[in-house]
Amino acid sequence: MAEKRCPALLRLSGRLCVIVGGGRGAAVKARSLSCAGARLRIIAESVSDEIKELDAEIIQRRCEPGDTEGAFIVFALTGNAETDEMIKNEARRGGALVGGEDILLPACAEGENITAFVSTGYPKLSAELMRDILKYDSVCGLLKRFRERVNRSPAEQDARDKLLAAAVTDEALETAVRSIEEYKEYLGRLEQELSDNIKENG
Fold first, then answer.
1. Quick one: pLDDT band at residue 2, thresholds 50, 70, 90?
2. In which element (H, E) is residue 124 found?
3. C-alpha to C-alpha distance for 138 and 176, rounded to whole angstroms
4. Is the pLDDT of residue 47 over 70?
5. CB-CB neighbours of 64 under 10 Å
6. Do 74 and 91 form a contact (C-beta atoms < 8 A)?
7. Residue 75's closest CA among 86, 88, 62?
8. What is the DSSP letter of 6?
9. What does DSSP say about strands 107-110 and 115-118: parallel, antiparallel, or unpaired?
């Protein structure tokens, strides 16, 4: 039987979260924690450029006893099973949650209009999916304003619902990713149809 889990949202703002490791997996976790406002400490002999771009305390050396003290969550991502186990044991003794075991942290995709979390169990796939999601960031901004205008319309609810559905068909979204200008024109045509419908029905 698969292990049962309970999804939950954590308040991480200002809380210390420690990541031991500086590779791709560490970068994905660090970005998710950063999205949540966590106070990041990353410990590794070498860290990726992606990690260096984050607002984090970076300690470039091997993890030492006491490095996880006061942490709320600790991720052991050194790639060495024995080292990772030692880090996890110290974290638990200090009362911290162990990332990947006590808590599963999805990858975070954050744009101007989108904040999404992706969990696949495979960091590289999560990163690819995040990039795909963020292709729709500008589309979300357009749709938010479009929805507000449509909902203010005096048209019947059924007509408004059909228009809102038409804005997010597979074909419409393919157009949006291909050309945001074409998509703007498409939304404009939908709004004109609604306006014409109102006039026809008096």
1. low
2. helix 123-134
3. 9
4. yes
5. 9
6. yes
7. 88
8. -
9. antiparallel
Between vectors from CA 142 to CA 137 and to CA 190, what angle results, nearest 5°? 135
As a whole number of angstroms, the distance between CA 164 and CA 43 comes to 48
What are phi and psi for residue 39, nearest 5 degrees? -90, 110
Instruction: Classify residue 40 as exposed, middle or buried by CB count within 10 Å of its CB (0-12, 13-18, 19+).
Output: buried
Q: State the pLDDT at residue 115.
A: 81
Rounded Cα gap, residues 75 and 105, in angstroms: 10
CB 162 within 8 A of CB 191: no
Q: Report how far apart, in Å, the C-alpha atoms of 19 and of each of 31, 42, 167 are.
A: 11, 5, 42
How far apart (Å, rounded) are the C-alpha atoms in residues 80 and 23? 13
- With 90 as the cut, is the pLDDT of residue 58 above it? yes
pLDDT interval class at 171 (50, 70, 90): very high
46 backbone dihedrals φ, ψ, rounded to 5° = -140, 135
Burial class (CB in 10 A: 0-12, 13-18, 19+), 61: exposed
